[in-house]
Amino acid sequence: MPMTRSTFVPAFAAMAALATATAARAQEVLGDLPTIGKPTLGAMGFQPAATELARDLQWLDGFINAIIIAIVVFVTVMLAWCILRFNEKRNPTPGTFTHNSPLEVAWTIVPILFKQQEIPHADITIKTTGYQWYWGYEYVDEGFYFDAFMLERDELEAAGYAPDEYLLATTEAMVVPVNKTIVVQLTGADVIHSWTVPAFGVKQDAVPGRLAELWFKAEREGVYFGQCSELCGQAHAYMPITVKVVSEEKYAAWLEQMRANYAGFPAAYDVAAR
To answer: What are the tens digits of pLDDT across the range 122-150?
Structure first.
């Protein structure tokens, strides 16, 4: 039996009950969304790329794989040739060189992706905090904060999730509008966690006492799942990530509801004047 929030920390029960109720109300506002980014039983390969970053990573993976295959074939041929051409009988005085430093430096630097580390101007900034074992989300320009716990099996249907999304769906989702630049600020409250959504091509450690950043710009409306990807304790496997990408209209309606639920800034509040 998995160690869920109700078994390893009894104090989670009250917080989770409130979060589950608000998740059901959020489902009414956001409506049905296609599930795009989740694991598929028996499948191979990447989840569908929903951001430019993910497309770049998947292209790079294929490109490097092609290079590696070419290198393996080339090295195999060269080994066979060297065995025949430079054996002791034919070449009694061997060479002493062992490697080519410039070549090794080149093939290490060339594949590096700098785009992930160049944080653009944010349309929306969300501070995300990893806890043992759930995630907290603060919409810093809206003045509200909520926690996202893993949903139990008997809570999935009411929150709008399928039975096979157990261990993936959470009581609250990070909700963002489509085609907007989202900057996620990450930290940890206790130990090191890691926030990752494969379909977005993002992964960043959440380290206590530090504030790291990642960014993405989702191009398709839908539901996307991720998991904590840094071993963080006994329930590490039970702190999933749910992100819903919606239209700007649905996002505005969701914001209005969340401001009321979590005492956020009024819609007309001037954030820049703070």
So the answer is: 999 999 999 999 999 999 999 999 999 99
Q: What is the DSSP secondary structure assignment for residue 214, as one 8-state letter? A: E
Tell me if 47 is assigned to some domain.
Answer: no
Residues 141 and 205 in one domain: yes
Cite the DSSP H helix spans in the chain.
Answer: 5-8, 12-30, 52-85, 101-109, 248-262
pTM across the whole model: 0.80
73: pLDDT strictly greater than 60:
yes
Is 83 exposed, middle or buried, given 0-12, 13-18 or 19+ CB atoms closer than 10 A?
exposed
How far is it, in rounded angstroms, from Cα 265 to Cα 274? Answer: 11
Distant-in-sequence, close-in-space partners of 233: CB < 8 Å, separation ≥ 6: 132, 133, 191
Mean pLDDT, the chain, rounded, equals 86
Question: What six digits make up the tokens of 32?
Answer: 């049905």
Based on the fold, state whether residues 102 and 123 are members of the same structural domain. Answer: no
- Which candidate, 229, 257, 63, 89, places its Cα nearest to that of 173? 257
Instruction: Assess whether 32 and 99 both reside in one domain.
Output: no
DSSP state of 170: B
Mean pLDDT of 255-270: 82
Instruction: Please count the helices (runs of H) and the strands (runs of E) in the chain.
Output: 5, 11
Please report, as a single letter, which amino acid is at residue 54. Answer: A
Distance CA 75, CA 84 (A): 14
Average of per-residue pLDDT across 200-227:
96
C-beta neighbour count of 197 within 10 angstroms: 25
User: What is the per-residue pLDDT across 47-68, written as a single tens digit (0 to 9) for each?
Assistant: 999 999 999 999 989 998 998 9
Please give the angle made by the CA atoms of 242, 245 and 248, to the nearest 5 degrees: 145
Instruction: Note down the domain range covering 20.
Output: 7-41+117-267
